[in-house]
Amino acid sequence: MSITAADVKALREKTGAGMMDAKKALEEVNGDMDAAVDLLRQKGMAKAEKKSSRTAAEGLVGFAIDGTKGAVVEINSETDFVARNEKFQDFVTKVSDLALANDELEALKSADYGNGKSVSDTLTDLIATIGEHMTIRRVESLSVSSGAVVGYMHNSLAGNLGKIGVLVALESEGDVAKLQTLGKQIAMHVAAAFPQYLDRDSVDASAIERERTVLIEQAKEEGKPQEIAEKMVEGRMRKFYGEICLLEQVFVIDNETRISDLLEKAAADVGAPVKLTGFARVQLGEGIEKEEEDFAAEVAKVANA
User: Fold this and answer.
1) What's the domain count of the chain?
2) What would the pLDDT profile of 219-265 be if each residue is shown by its tens digit?
3) Helices and strands in the chain: count of H runs, count of E runs
4) Which residues, listed in sequence order, are joined to residue 147 by a DSSP beta bridge?
5) Residues 62, 190: one domain?
6) C-alpha 148: how far from chain center
7) Structural domain boundaries, residue 294
């Protein structure tokens, strides 16, 4: 399989490995990106798999909440300048509101905007007015039967508009005002700590097996026999869960309390048990790469060497 410059670049961004190491790893596993990441980690050539927080597309993230339901949307534009356009901001705000009742992307695009046109057609008109391509990229929603859905916008540009929008869903019969305060703190934690899953049961079995395999190989690379390596892995897996599962993460505000313990302690203040049933974290441009011509050219030289 031919290894491209883009492949090498992507692997470097995931692992922080050197260009030649990245290229050799890809060649060794016939271009399989996940296998190349694992190989570099096993050999100690990779830093922990990086969670990229670089904004790679422009536009806005917006959210709307109605009591026990919330929705967050990402709408992209070509330049940051558009994010400051009042017409674009109004559009994102209105679409966020519409997402409360239309929480699937295609349903949202087809929804009545309130002007006799669909959301999609209204966006087309806005594109013609502003003169820049825009797209509704994604929508996520949360709801609870009782309690509160709480939102937080990191570095808000205007109202509930910005670049990192977070929703958390708290199921409880307790005091709603106190749930709002608790939810805001947890949402701020989610924005900063970037959890990938709610709890251990939410983690894909394949991701667990993959991590366990990598950790065993790392232990072997350290010269540990198989039985010792497997015992070491159990402790390292706890750390793994503590990094990616929200309920097992350490609360960033006090840097000592696990989120699950925070919820237990909050029950007394709220007046009833509190269960965190879900969260959504939407970061503008996440997973979209911008062209970096100079860097791409440098990678191309290595890939073609």
Assistant:
1) 2
2) 778 887 777 777 788 778 888 899 999 999 999 999 999 999 999 99
3) 12, 7
4) 171
5) yes
6) 22
7) 1-52+290-305
Please answer whether residues 153 and 63 qualify as being in contact, where contact means their C-beta atoms are separated by less than 8 angstroms.
yes
Q: Are residues 28 and 132 in the same domain?
A: no
Percent helix, strand, coil in the chain, to 5, is 50, 20, 30
- Regarding whether 40 and 18 lie in a shared domain, the answer is yes
Higher pLDDT, 208 or 266: 266
How confident is the model over 96-118, as pLDDT tens digits? Answer: 999 999 999 999 999 999 999 99
Pair (7, 22) in one structural domain:
yes
Distance CA 189, CA 227 (A): 38
Q: pTM for the complete prediction?
A: 0.74
Report d(CA 247, CA 260) in Å as an integer: 5
3-state secondary structure of 204: coil
Q: In the numeric block, which tokens belong to residue 114?
A: 């309130």
Same domain, 124 and 28: no
